[in-house]
Write a structure and sequence with these properties.
Number of strands of chain B: 3
Order of helices and strands of chain A: EEEHEEHEHHHEHEHEEH
Number of domains of chain B: 2
Radius of gyration of chain B: 24 Å
CATH topology of the largest domain in chain B: Arc Repressor Mutant, subunit A
CATH class of the largest domain in chain B: Mainly Alpha
Shape of chain B: elongated
Radius of gyration of chain A: 19 Å
CATH architecture of chain A: 3-Layer(aba) Sandwich
CATH architecture of the largest domain in chain B: Orthogonal Bundle
Largest sheet of chain B: 3 strands, antiparallel
Oligomer: heterodimer
Structural class of chain B: mainly alpha
CATH superfamily of the largest domain in chain B: Winged helix-like DNA-binding domain superfamily/Winged helix DNA-binding domain
Bound molecules: adenosine-5'-triphosphate, magnesium ion
CATH superfamily of chain A: P-loop containing nucleotide triphosphate hydrolases
Largest interface: A-B, 25 and 35 residues
CATH topology of chain A: Rossmann fold
Largest sheet of chain A: 6 strands, mixed
Number of strands of chain A: 10
Chain lengths: ~250, ~180
């Protein structure tokens, strides 16, 4: 439940974002509407330049729109001052990028604890929460390692743990698998899926890979800064049933 | 089919009935054999000296006939395993035909066709990726996981091709 009692985690209306002016003017978003309910796992797809990253940045409060409104947990971002925005972001938004953006001089656990420490949590509590978050993403045993000692897939798990350590309402992921090989990337998306199923995590994920988008429950296709197609995917069937379909003679 | 049967006989003598079950359930996807096919194939393999049969005496039950590989059969099997398979590209595709028609018929819209096909493809992909994830979690046999992966990557390739069609149709329309 969000602050105003609705269950919408994110509500976006008539969003526009224009970069540059004159000759070099780019309309990255041209009146985009979308909703994300608590517990949703939605994937944003669309060709390069369609505005996916711009949308995520705006929802994360890292950038401001030219017009339109964004409500996160019921609060209109444009009505917040810097401090309020920082607080709202800290409580509600976790974000994972294609580049893992870990600090190489800190261990996995220190990286994950950092946002808590910055937010004023005591060191001891921050570290115990960080260790728990690393456990949840399946690499608790690697928590004392430096990022340079971890594989790409492991580093991205650390980044996911860091994004989740504040227990944010929404996890935003911008091509979280862009730098990984196909097996590690599939496993990262399966991890996101598990977070949705087991902990009711709300996730908005940008991806170019159809097989990763298909792991979500809802698909949002962008083109030229607008939503051109939305699709809610039906609940999965049992493995045996699917196998029977695949294996039954033509 | 002959080579698959040689493969099933390679790790020890097998009874005809077990052969059919192993072929359908553990090896060849989408396979359906009847006994007639199994025995005709075994007879042919025997005539060619690739397989031998022998009768095993069982004390409590009637004697049973089992089949085993000959040295020639084993050689033939390993030769086949080393050779590249004939890749089945099978380009007969209903979507392709629809797209070609919608591009040239008045009142038909290729972009609509693409949207419908993409929807369907992603639904199938959703089902199968979910099953793939569950299979991995439940530690299903590797054969199951790999079969699901094969389906996933085929569907993904199709989704990519649909995207490509969309881009090229748009390019053509702005020329
Ligand atoms: N800071 C910026 N300054 C100028 N132009 C920008 C900026 N950020 C984005 N753009 C432009 O806005 C458009 C949308 O960019 P965006 O990064 O949102 O696309 P995207 O859908 O994420 O693409 P990709 O799949 O390649 O990541 C692009 O044309 C891009 O060049
Ligand atoms: Mg982007």
């Amino acid at each position: 439940m969000t602050d105003d009692g609705s269950t919408l985690a994110v509500e976006v209306r008539g969003l526009t974002r224009v970069f540059g002016s004159g000759e070099s003017k780019v309309e990255a978003l041209r009146g985009l509407d979308m909703n994300l309910s608590a517990g949703d796992f939605a994937a944003v797809m669309g060709p390069s330049g369609s505005g996916k990253s711009t949308l995520l940045h705006l929802i994360a409060g890292l950038d401001a729109p030219n017009s339109g409104t964004i409500r996160v947990a019921g609060r209109d971002l444009s009505t917040l001052n810097d401090d309020e925005l920082t607080l709202l972001r800290r409580r509600n938004i976790g974000i994972v990028f294609q580049a893992f953006n870990l600090l190489n001089i800190l261990t996995a656990e220190e990286n994950v604890a950092l946002p808590l420490v910055i937010g004023g949590t005591s060191r001891a509590e921050a570290h115990s929460k960080a260790a728990a978050a690393l456990d949840r993403v399946g690499i608790g045993q690697r928590r004392k390692h430096l990022p340079t000692e971890l594989s790409g897939g492991e580093q991205q798990r650390v980044a996911v743990a860091r994004a989740l350590v504040n227990e944010p309402l929404i996890l935003l992921a911008d091509e979280p698998t862009g730098n990984l090989d196909s097996l590690s990337s599939d496993r990262i998306v399966m991890l996101l899926r598990r977070l949705v199923e087991e902990q009711g995590q709300t996730i908005l994920m940008v991806t170019h890979e159809a097989r990763h988008a298909a792991m979500a429950d809802r698909l949002i296709h962008l083109r030229d800064g607008r939503v051109v197609q939305e699709q809610t995917l039906p609940p999965g069937r049992e493995v045996d049933e699917i196998l029977q379909d695949l294996e039954s003679p033509p | 089919m002959q080579n698959a049967i040689l493969g099933l006989l390679a790790s020890g003598p097998v009874h005809g009935y077990e052969l059919r079950t192993a072929y359908e359930d553990q090896l060849v996807p989408r396979a359906k054999l009847n006994f007639g096919q199994v025995y005709t194939t075994l007879e042919r393999l025997q005539r060619n000296g690739l397989v031998q049969n022998e009768v095993v005496n069982q004390s409590a039950r009637p004697d049973k006939k089992v089949y085993r590989l000959t040295d020639d059969g084993r050689r033939r099997l390993y030769d086949w395993l080393k050779k590249p398979s004939k890749f089945d590209l099978d380009l007969r595709n209903e979507t392709f035909v629809k797209l070609m028609l919608t591009r040239r018929l008045a009142g038909a819209d290729a972009f609509e066709t693409l949207a419908v096909e993409r929807r369907e493809c992603l639904e199938r992909l959703h089902e199968i990726t979910q099953a793939r994830a569950k299979a991995a979690e439940q530690k299903a046999p590797l054969r199951t996981v790999l079969l699901l992966d094969l389906a996933v990557f085929r569907l993904e390739a199709f989704a990519k091709w649909l995207d490509r069609c969309e881009e090229l149709f748009r390019e053509e329309d702005t020329r």
